[in-house]
Amino acid sequence: MSNTDLIQRFYFAGQPFRGAIVKLQNSFIEALNGHNYPSSINALLGESLTASVLMGIHLKHNARLSLQARGDGPIKLLMAEAVMQQAADTNEEVTQHKVRAVARLSEETPPGIESDSQALQHLLGRGQLAITIEPEEGERYQGIVGADQENLSQCLEAYFNQSEQLPTLFQLATSDTAAAGILLQRMPHNDNYQAGDNTLNSNDIWEELIALTGTLTDRELLEVPVEKLLFNLFHEHQVKLSPPDTIQFECSCSYQRTGAALMQISPLEIESILEADQEIVMDCEFCSARYRFNRKDIDNLGQQSNETRH
Ligand SMILES: [Zn+2]
């Protein structure tokens, strides 16, 4: 298996901790393809894509997880999405993660935004992050946290520690061509470790794991292969690995979905565009796919949406 575009989950034998490492390369490059964002925005998109996969660590079934940032700074909206799907045609439990991302920038981008590293607040202004989980079966869940820390990792740590009561460590790193991240999390229910001594022991080990992970440099996170990275960090602990899952760039847009979105626009507006241009052209914000609708297409869409309504 390739050493990039994957998520590697890991556990600690007999301890209530879980973790995952995500490495993105092709999926990251393809998600940015054709957008030409400033490099600081590319970096934040890479972090967001990585985080959107990492945050699904506890999900066992098909689900869509998105991370959305809104603000009044140079970035108006940033969204990264990971869709987890169990591969249907194999006996093995292989899960695929399909990722995509987009940023909407304000008209005036202030000077200095081109540089690689920018504090989150410089990019977003006053903003907030929304984490949304939509399982294929079951209820949609959304959590909100202020984007008021120095970087995305710290905001997400605050979200898990405060809103979810799950002590969590995030470390995210990007380069021009890759993004990577590690998550370490204390699991919520820990029935085996309620006895006093063991709880203490678990606390000590948790502190130690946090300290060990803190020694990791961005460069190591980006460049060292996953298994070697885990060995380097935790060789004194019994780390167990699950089979890694693959990650790829894939946009979920389609002619049908774009047409459905078009039907939300007022008929008057549609009519005036058709009179001027004879067709309506819609580009997907995520992948730049172009969808064209002439009068006949729009009549068909109108009929279809009437039929589904009745
Ligand atoms: Zn698309």
**The CATH superfamily title of the largest domain:** Hsp33 domain
Order of helices and strands: EEHHEEEHEEHEEHHHEEHHEEH
Bound molecules: zinc ion
| Average residue-wise pLDDT | 89
How many structural domains does the protein architecture include?
2
Task: Quickly give the structural class.
Answer: alpha+beta
CATH class of the largest domain: Alpha Beta
**What composes the largest sheet?**
11 strands, mixed
CATH-defined topology of the largest domain: Hsp33 domain
Give the tally of β-strands. Answer: 13
* Proper CATH architecture of the largest domain: 3-Layer(bab) Sandwich
Over the alpha carbons, how many angstroms does the gyration radius reach? Answer: 22 Å
Globally, the shape reads: globular
What percent of residues adopt helix (DSSP H or I)?
Answer: 25-40%
Helical segment count:
10
Low-pLDDT runs: 191-196
How much strand content do the residues show?
25-35%
Which structural traits does this protein have?
310 residues; alpha+beta; Hsp33 domain; CBS domain Like; 2 domains; two-stranded antiparallel ribbon; globular; binds zinc ion
What do these coordinates show?
By secondary structure, this protein is of the alpha+beta class. It folds into 2 domains: 244 residues, 3-Layer(bab) Sandwich (Hsp33 domain); 55 residues, HSP33 redox switch-like (CBS domain Like), CATH 3.90.1280. Helix content is 35%, strand content 31%. Strands 1, 2, 3, 4, 5, 6, 7, 8, 9, 10 and 11 form an 11-stranded mixed β-sheet that branches. Strands 12-13 form a two-stranded antiparallel ribbon. A hairpin with a 3-residue loop joins strand 3 and strand 4. It is globular and about 70 Å long. About 2% of the residues have low confidence. Bound molecules: zinc ion. Zinc ion (ZN) binds next to loops. Zinc ion binds next to loops.
